[in-house]
């Protein structure tokens, strides 16, 4: 078993300004799913924490947004409120990360949103990550 972690933060004051800009509609449509937009209702705190979560997931994948689009990552909520990661488009993620087991934690306070993403990868090799890196 291998574990990867990604963390990101979002400045909510800056995001609130961006949401008032002429490019806001393009940013929202390129970044969030319809379900996320409906849930967030334009609120910077909800959008910001989801943006931070998408960034944290991309960091845990290890590719960032190269080969992975923010639209492919949807942050959903269970009825009790627990957030979870959903792969939306049916397109594979780098390293088949859409198949990994994901856990996310979200938080926001006044002008800062933060998210952590943890991925548990299936065991594919008996080699350690250091051995894998050294063999390349």
Automatic annotation (TrEMBL):
<dbReference type="GO" id="GO:0008897">
    <property type="term" value="F:holo-[acyl-carrier-protein] synthase activity"/>
</dbReference>
<dbReference type="InterPro" id="IPR037143">
    <property type="entry name" value="4-PPantetheinyl_Trfase_dom_sf"/>
</dbReference>
<dbReference type="GO" id="GO:0000287">
    <property type="term" value="F:magnesium ion binding"/>
</dbReference>
<dbReference type="InterPro" id="IPR004568">
    <property type="entry name" value="Ppantetheine-prot_Trfase_dom"/>
</dbReference>
<protein>
    <submittedName>
        <fullName>4'-phosphopantetheinyl transferase superfamily protein</fullName>
    </submittedName>
</protein>
<dbReference type="Pfam" id="PF01648">
    <property type="entry name" value="ACPS"/>
</dbReference>
<keyword id="KW-0808">Transferase</keyword>
<dbReference type="GO" id="GO:0006633">
    <property type="term" value="P:fatty acid biosynthetic process"/>
</dbReference>
<dbReference type="InterPro" id="IPR008278">
    <property type="entry name" value="4-PPantetheinyl_Trfase_dom"/>
</dbReference>
<feature type="domain" description="4'-phosphopantetheinyl transferase">
    <location>
        <begin position="5"/>
        <end position="116"/>
    </location>
</feature>
<keyword id="KW-0460">Magnesium</keyword>
<keyword id="KW-0479">Metal-binding</keyword>
């Amino acid at each position: 078993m291998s574990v990867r972690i990604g963390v990101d933060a979002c400045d909510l004051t800056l995001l609130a300004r961006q949401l008032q800009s002429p490019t806001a509609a393009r940013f929202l449509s390129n970044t969030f799913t319809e379900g996320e937009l409906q849930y967030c209702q334009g609120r910077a705190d909800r959008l910001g924490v989801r943006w931070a979560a998408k960034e944290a997931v991309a960091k845990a994948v290890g590719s960032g947004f190269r080969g992975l689009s923010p639209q492919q990552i949807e942050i959903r909520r269970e009825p009790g409120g627990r957030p979870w990661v959903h792969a939306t488009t049916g397109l594979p993620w780098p390293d088949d990360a859409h198949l990994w087991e994901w856990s996310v934690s979200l938080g926001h306070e006044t002008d800062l949103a933060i998210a952590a993403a943890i991925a548990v990868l299936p065991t594919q090799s008996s080699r350690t990550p250091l051995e894998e890196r050294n063999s390349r």
